[in-house]
Amino acid sequence: MSIATEIARRRTFAIISHPDAGKTTLTEKLLLYGGAVQLAGSVTARKNQRATTSDWMELEKKRGISISSTVLQFDYNGYRINLLDTPGHKDFSEDTYRVLTAVDSVVMVIDSAKGIEPQTRKLFEVCRQRGVPIFTFMNKCDRPMRNPLELLDELEHVLGIGAFPVNWPIGNGFEFQGVYDRQTSQFHLFERTVGGKHRAPVSVGGINDPEIRGRLDDATFHKTVEELEMLDTAGNKFDDAAVLAGKTTPVFFGSGINNFGVQLLLDGFLKHSPAPKARVMGGIEIAPENPAFSGFIFKIQANMNPKHRDRIAFVRVCSGKFERDMTVHHSRSEKGVRLSSAHKLFGKERETVDEAYPGDVIGLVGHDSFGIGDTLTTDSKIQYKEIPRFTPEAFSYLHNPNTAKYKQFRQGLDQLLQEGVTQTLYLRNASTKTPLLAAVGPLQFEVVQFRLESEYGAESRLEAALWHVVRWLPITIKEEDLDALSLPTGARLAYDIGKNPVVLFQNDWSANYFDETNKKFPLSAVPVQTARE
Ligand SMILES: Nc1nc2c(ncn2[C@@H]2O[C@H](COP(=O)(O)OP(=O)(O)OP(=O)(O)O)[C@@H](O)[C@H]2O)c(=O)[nH]1
Ligand SMILES: [Mg+2]
Questions:
Q1: What is the pLDDT of residue 529?
Q2: Phi-psi region of 490 (alpha: psi -120 to 50; beta: other; left: phi over 0)
Q3: pLDDT averaged over the chain?
């Protein structure tokens, strides 16, 4: 197959939403319908029950929430799919935002009883800024849901995006029986299966089909027909160009847990979603067909598989062809590195790959110098600057209570920091060496503690720090200037991991006051990207 054919069959997308809307459940069902798993697992699985493929981490299974994003690559119907399930909780949003740099489109999951929730709105904004096409899955229609017309209206008014219903729910809550496919004018009526482990049996037929009509009570049938007529009168047509421009979202209704509407979502998504396209970096356009191989690292994770205690760097391939054993330029070290150990990923499972194409996410093992944001390429002029950085809002000291295990503590912490689970700051003129962790949200500290213990056998103790705000000083500031700064009460100078100076404040008021009174050294809320010597 030519490279153009390989690119055209790639679909790389993330599933995003507010916590608990059903992303991981839907992911598992897409795997079931995509033929990648035979039996679907559940996010609420107890011992001896099957868990989902994407919530593979011990802490995720224990909590029933997603903590870390997961990559799942599989083949379906001629497509090569790279599906990324993301955590919804805002404390883990750094991971989710990084994933958004690596995908070409997203499926936004909405709980139909709740409508658009705050975290969904934030993620939507990031997608819109990046011009990423958005597909919507109105999930949990098996629960008393809001009026579907109202849900569409909310998409249009709250998010300011056109909404095109590709299919339409039949019945609501306990009476939810399936969806009407507006593209083919067919009813799809499903039956539930135990635990939703298997595909749901489905009957498909048109409006005059006696079997379909016989399964619907008069009220449901007439209500559905009436709503469909209203939609037709509104007269919008499916507009591929508007979808690809991120101006309209195709909307699918269903119930992930019961497998209702999953097949229609999968097929509809694949048909209308984009293949990888050119990326623009520093004014130059890098097309996927560019003969030079290029990609960037958007995630690092250690100890994914207890059999191989190692780190995987997740690379999104952007152009050219990847071949195992090829030598590439590594942007951070400015050195050539040979990529001998490359894998395709399926949750925590991995398999060696010999080649990969634009759109693919591959896992590289055995390169300690790789960091998040690094570019790997055969053309050293290409450098991606995709990875956003975040302003921490939670600060805590991490103590090692067991001096005999200092080595495990330090090694574990260093690896977790390299993964970007949290950031670390060093207080200026500090008397102790206790690391000060800085994170978007406090749940990230819990992840550090849990993983230190389970993956490195190191205990730890958290001590809340008194600061709540961090601001970056200009990188040009001299050490003498730092000495001369007069800080508000409780504020403290520190350095980030790149030795850039920062000020820690107790609250926003104090930060704003300092900013107002020290015009010579303007503060920045956004982390500085470079490292000071
Ligand atoms: N009734 C109903 N419940 C569902 C459906 N889909 C998922 N759930 C339930 O909703 C809860 C959350 O599901 P998850 O799939 O873990 O949600 P998530 O969006 O991945 O959550 P985070 O990753 O933690 O943000 C679980 O209890 C699921 O069983 C559905 O279609 N109907
Ligand atoms: Mg999840």
A1: 61
A2: left
A3: 94
Tokens standing for residue 186: 């067919």
CA distance 420 to 232: 49
The CB of 169 under 6 Å from ligand 1? The reply is: no
pLDDT at 448 exceeding the cut of 50: yes
**Cβ atoms of residues 286 and 228 within 8 Å:** no
Q: Which ligand is nearest to the CA of 261?
A: 1
What span, in angstroms and rounded, lies between the C-alpha atoms of 57 and 305?
10
Q: Which residues are in the CB-under-5-Å shell of ion ligand 2?
A: 23-24, 66
CB atoms within 10 A of CB 227: 18
3 within 8 A of 289, measured Cβ to Cβ: yes
In this prediction, residue 497 carries a pLDDT of 85
How far is CA 351 from each of CA 199, 326, 355, 370, rounded to the nearest angstrom? 27, 18, 12, 20
**CA gap 215, 290 in Å, rounded:** 54
How confident is the model over 327-334, as a mean pLDDT?
Answer: 96
Nearest CA to 135 among 224, 242, 231, 52? 242
**What counts of helices (H) and strands (E) characterise the chain?**
14, 30
98 lines ligand 1 (CB under 6 A): no
pLDDT given for residue 390 in this prediction: 84
| Cα 44 to averaged position of ligand 1 atoms, centre (Å) | 9
CA proximity to 420, closest of 439, 400, 435:
439
pTM, two decimal places: 0.94
Four-CA torsion 199, 205, 211, 213, nearest 10 degrees: 110
Separation between Cα atoms, residue 367 and residue 349, nearest integer Å: 19
Q: What are the C-alpha distances in Å from 233 to residues 226, 300, 353?
A: 11, 50, 51
Ligand 1 atom closest to Cα of residue 89: 25
Atom index in ligand 1 nearest the CA of residue 139 equals 31
Ligand 1 atom nearest 109 alpha carbon? 19
Question: Ligand 1 in contact with 436 (CB < 6 A)?
Answer: no
141 lines ligand 1 (CB under 6 A): no
Alpha carbons within 13 A on the beta-carbon side of 118: 3
